[in-house]
Amino acid sequence: MQSTLKPTRVSARPSRRLLTLGALSLLGYATVWACSPSSEAPPTTVTPPTPTIAISNSASLSGQQGTTQTSTITLTRGGNYTGTVSLAASGAPAGVTVTLTPTTLSGTTLTSTLSAVIGATATPTTAGSITVTATGSGVSSATATVPITVTAAPSPDFTLSPATANATVVQGQASAATAFTLARLNSYAGDVVLSASGLPTGVTAAFTQPGTGSAGSVVFTALSTAGTGTYPITITASGPNTTAKTATVSLVVQSTPTVVLGLTPPTLSLAQGANGTTSIAITRTNITGDVTLTAENVPQGVTAAFTPAATSGTTSSLALSVGGSVTPGVYTITVRGTATGATAGTATVTLTVTQAQGYSLSAGAASVQQGSTGTSIVNFTRSGGFAGAVTLAATNLPTGVTASFSPNNTTGNSSTLTFTATGSAAAGSYTVTVTGTATGLANVTTTVSLTVTSSGGGSGNINWTFCDTEDFPLWFAVQQGSGAWTRITPTGTTTRIYSFNMSGNGGVAYAQSISSGGVGVVVQYLSQDEITYGGTAECVTNPAKKTLTGTVAGLSAGQSATVMVGNGSGSASTNGAVSVSNVPFGTTDLLATRSAFNLTTLSFAPDRAIIRRNVNFASAITPTLDFAGGDSFALTSAPYTIANANGEPLQITTGFLTSNGTAGNFVSALNSTTNPATVYGVPLAQTQNGDLHQILAFAYTTSGTNTSSRGMTQYNRELSARTLTLGATLNLPTLTSLGSTPYVRYSATGTWQSDYPHSVGVGYTRAVSGANSWTLTVSRTYAGNGASNYSLVMPDFSGVAGFNTAWGMGSGTTDVAITASGVSSGFNTGTGIWSEGGFFRFASRTTTISP
To answer: In this predicted structure, what is the pLDDT of residue 455?
Structure first.
């Protein structure tokens, strides 16, 4: 707006002037200043604010076909504009109708609601827009753009859901119904039909169809011939104007309800008047009710009772009571288990009825020195289930000899008979009668061959000593060169010392009680040095012993511990107590190892060890042997190649010898053909002078009941990659029967083999309770280092004082084991001590012979 004042000059006399203001239709104002002529100024122009309008939207629009979306349009006035503003919308996507409420804005109303109605056929778009235009009198128009996204409305459809993903049907039966739920989406109203696929042969499916509803179900029926197992069944729901829907049901076809019985043991041997029990394992197939047990074909005089007779569990027991008049024989009793709706199960127990209870006695020969004691083991063979106590008594004792039994009145299977001879007891051979008494049974007797020897011992340059009372000889004799055998009597009570003179080669023979109840006779032909060493070796091999207890820790599942003190040993498969038996008295070393058995390689793989040196535990090993503790250390390993194994199965044993006499084994690889083999042992830093690893490897073959083996043992302080070369197969000697008078005797004649030049041994045993055994050994130095052949003949000791011919071999098939060895280096025959790198080879063969 412009204003002009006319005239612009005013005289001193007051006068009027006209002020013309243009375009005062808007709010505005003008200021006019009057000035004196002396301060006359040019005309003044005044510009009022420009009126404006602007609009904005609150949000972009987005919606599916068939929906309405809104946004708020806001008016902003400027320049003091108060006029009415009109709104209009344009540019909406096809199928979208836009309205503005209100379409005019006046006064204080500054907003309008834009409504976009998206038709069902509106074109989907992600880049649409609506333009809103605002107009008013005297102002420039304004626009605002409202983005709009149109998405397609979802089609009518449905989903299928089973109430459970699993179903079970039994052969010959129908399953429970498996329900399905249909969720109808976007007003889907089609008729839905269910079907099944993947059904196994012999199984059908019957449906309750959902139709236009929201639920259905299926029932599976299996023929009795339907295959058992688990099958994935596909359930398909089909309806118009949409894709089919599927769900999977895991169908388990179970076998027909049955009862299966198992008896442990399936056989019972009972004497007349005795009772016995067999456990019954009940295997149920699709049965939850009671199984009723009955016994059939029970012989007269035998009663059968079940505990329980009807059970919903899986176990029971059958007690059979045999009357005293039941005829001995073999009977088959059928146990039947029945259950409602199930196939009955049967099992049989074979009952052998024997004669009434009883027992027999047997005892080995005994020898006692004047003023000392001697023992014999009395063995009980019980029959007919007899388990009662037996009281023993000895009669026909020689003057000056008494007898005692430990234990007596025993329910066990053996008792130790101890003879005590006074210094005046007459030396000689006697037959002592042992009588057993038991309640309700007739007395039983056996005899013991007792030899009383003179208290006078021998003297000489050789002292052959026995330290283990269980191995004290019944008789001992020596042979100088090829001369006559001479009996030697011992001295000592806690040990047995046989003293004699020996110059050059000679023989040593002795008889001992053995575990079979018989007598073992040992005959050795050796050089003087070998006899000297052999006399001390008995106490190294069989020293006086004690048993120690201890505690192991640091074992995990699947691991075990082996504890060795001296040549005594014990083991534990869990953390806790361990017992170590056959521990020699005196100062020795302890070696404990931790191992895990590998089922793939059939071997024990040790990983940690504990060594405690110079120990002499009285009864308990302290402190705890903790494989996670401070004195535990990791083992080392090395590959050992076994040459000349010829692909035969191998056994490899790692031992560890200390200067104090500990001989502990680490690991054995059973029936392994792995070659090289991994050998475990003590790291060099944990060893000291005198320590040696003893690596023993042998290969073997079998033919029927006979075996052949070849082996080698080597001694080294440090484990490292090494090769052990096995020798040749051992040749069988010629075995000859020498008759049966005064007892069965045999000879073995063979050729010395270059791989085994040191010694040959032949052992004779019979697999009969109470049988005797004989072992003969000859060294190469005895036979002569230049000799090509050896000959081992069982001596006839019948003319040697104190020898009992009942100790000879009995008639019948006899098992023969032939062994040979060859020490190549590193062994001191005088001390029996090995040195670094020492080794020897050995071999064995077995066969049989009859007199």
So the answer is: 55
